[in-house]
Amino acid sequence: LQRNWRNKEEAFLTLEATLEATDNGIVVVNSAGKVLHRNHGFNEMWGIPKELANSDDEEAILNHMLDQLSDPDKFKLDEQSAYKNAESEALYVVEFKDGRVFERSSRVMEKNGRLAGRVWSFRDVSERKRIEALLNFIAQRGWIGTGGDFLPALTKYLGAMLAVDYVYIGKLFDDQKMVETVAYYARGEISEAISYALEGTPCKNIVGRELTLYREGVQQLFPADLCLVEMQAESYLGMPLWDSAGRPIGLISVLDTRPMENIDLVKAALRLVAASVALELERQSEEKALREERDR
Description:
Helices cover 42% and strands 27% of the residues. It has 296 residues and is α+β, with helices and mostly antiparallel strands. Strands 6, 7, 8, 9, 10, 11 and 12 form a seven-stranded antiparallel beta sheet that branches. The protein has a five-stranded antiparallel beta sheet with strand order 2-1-5-4-3, sandwiched between helices. α6 packs parallel to α10 (263-295) and α7 (150-162) packs antiparallel against α10 (263-295).
């Protein structure tokens, strides 16, 4: 009897350790719908306070979850559907008021061929969904309906998507010592073009080189850059742009008045759009050269 008890205890501890090791939020319920276990990842993903997580007040925990959702009724209907249809596996999308997106999957647990409960798994796919939306914006030419041009519309889209204060695309002068912004998003609006010297700015360190990040303290690192002071910039991430011949043509930069968060998402977004932006800069340069040739 003691051996069986020890074996069951070891099996339970092994299962609990497995559930805690995953990045997903996990909830295990029995066939009656009673919660048997919620892992720490679940509590963190849903922002459940420690005292509430340690309580047995499942109704309060559910209400805490529903209050965060764009469509709480859909969340409840999806769960009812999974139980009603007795599906072996189900996948649902959960959308939050703050823009986050979770995938919610459900698998049945069986014991001796009979339903013993369900395992609900929650995975944060917010970044993936944002990247997919950005791809769709570019592929479907999402700026056309607004009557705007590609580059300004893209900087505005990126500013909202990444929740940052500034996004700009700059084109290098021929001497590669100056930059002129061709699209400049600043605090929710498209601003007028500006020109500035690269010397003494964080942009100088990326032109013709590689992606560069200053997560915080960018003003202190570049005290001669008065634009950073005016912008109240705290963080900076910039990426060089190259033309089809492999020559530096410009840059795309993101700045914020706070230390930069979601760095992996910002990097992924800039890498995704870089080729399209460089191609557009090159096209604009060629058109300008043709106009000047005709006007001679």
